[in-house]
From TrEMBL:
Enzyme Commission number, as recorded: 3.1.3.41
Gene3D superfamilies hit by this protein: HAD superfamily/HAD-like
Name of this chain's protein: 4-nitrophenylphosphatase
Sorted UniProt keywords: Hydrolase, Magnesium, Metal-binding
Any one Gene Ontology cellular component term annotated for this protein: cytoplasm
UniProt lineage: Eukaryota, Fungi, Dikarya, Basidiomycota, Agaricomycotina
Organism: Coniophora puteana (strain RWD-64-598)
Length: 300
């Protein structure tokens, strides 16, 4: 049963217990361009209390450098090595785990975040924001030439998804038997300003259906993201807490990594999913309405 936090003492005790705080972004710190009330204050308080703060987002639409600019605009000084996104984790996976040969490239369904992180990791790609692929014209095989150097398809959130992109990815995945099928993350939806939008998982789903197999998911809850963090940051899992809004990504990620977990209700998960009548089998250690609730703790 999750412990529902409510008093200043509850929050004070939570802050005392953990040295490293890993924060999901969409639905925890902000909904789209709207910051969650008090979130930036709480991050400042945690830092003032000597806590390590790390950001772990499945949102692959932006790179770590782009997220740093978003934090700058919100008035929080953040170092790029405090930000871990699924676009970054995917680029690292392709370059250091898959070890995609340098003469091979990735076909991307996704946005600039993926392109920037692949480039940063020295991985070549086609597709993505290429104007030739961002079209509503019918796709014809007579106008398509398979690029035999494509060794992987990487699919992430793409708000300009279309039939051409899906058709090209389908060709690479079915005509090259060794082409890897990767997804930055498989979140079905995500919290945006004013409501909920379909997420990366709902972008790769039609491709998975057509190809007849699921992609390898690199983002939360997969351990790849934690491996990326551990490669750069030393932390003690027993003194680390993961704060998220989605049970089947953030909370499961924390549990599988041996971390404590705090669920907030400012994003995807609604209270009824944890209280019942048919509660989720994924049970966070702690629950609170919003990360802003932690303003109750002092700065001392
Ligand atoms: O890709 C998506 O579906 C969303 O951008 C993703 O779900 C949000 O990422 P978060 O910061 O909540 O991990
Ligand atoms: Mg989230």
């Amino acid at each position: 049963m999750a412990a529902r936090l409510s008093s200043a003492q509850d929050y004070e005790s939570l802050v005392d217990q953990y040295d490293t705080w890993m924060f999901d972004c969409d639905g925890v710190l902000w909904q789209g361009s709207n910051p969650v009330d008090g979130a930036m204050d709480v991050l400042q308080i945690l830092r003032h209390r000597g806590k390590r703060v790390i950001f772990v987002t499945n949102n692959a639409s932006q790179s770590r450098k782009s997220y740093k600019k978003k934090f700058d605009k919100l008035g929080l000084e953040v170092h790029v090595d405090e930000i871990y996104g699924s676009a970054y984790a995917s680029a690292v996976y392709i370059s250091t785990v898959m070890k995609l040969p340098k003469d091979k490239k990735v076909f991307v369904i996704g946005m600039s975040g993926i392109e920037e992180e692949l480039t940063e990791e020295g991985v070549s790609y086609i597709g993505g924001t290429d104007p030739a692929d961002n079209t509503l014209e019918p796709f014809s095989l007579s106008n398509f030439t398979l690029d035999t150097s494509v060794g992987a398809v990487l699919c992430g959130l793409d708000t300009s998804i279309n039939y051409t992109k899906l058709s090209k990815a389908y060709q690479y995945l079915t005509r090259n038997p060794v082409c890897e099928f990767l997804a930055t993350n498989t979140d079905s939806t995500y919290p945006a300003a004013g409501g909920t939008l379909i997420g990366a998982g709902s972008i790769s789903a039609p491709l998975a259906f057509a190809v007849g197999k699921e992609p390898l998911c690199i983002g939360k809850p997969a351990k790849t993201m934690l491996d990326c963090i551990q490669a750069k940051v030393h932390f003690d899992p027993k003194k680390t807490i993961m704060v998220g809004d989605r049970l089947n990504t953030d909370i499961l990620f924390g549990q599988q990594g041996g971390l404590a977990t705090l669920l907030v209700l400012t994003g995807i998960t609604k209270e009824i999913e944890i209280t019942g009548p048919s509660p989720s089998p994924i049970v966070p250690d702690y629950v609170t309405a919003s990360i802003g609730d932690l303003r109750a703790v002092g700065k001392q």
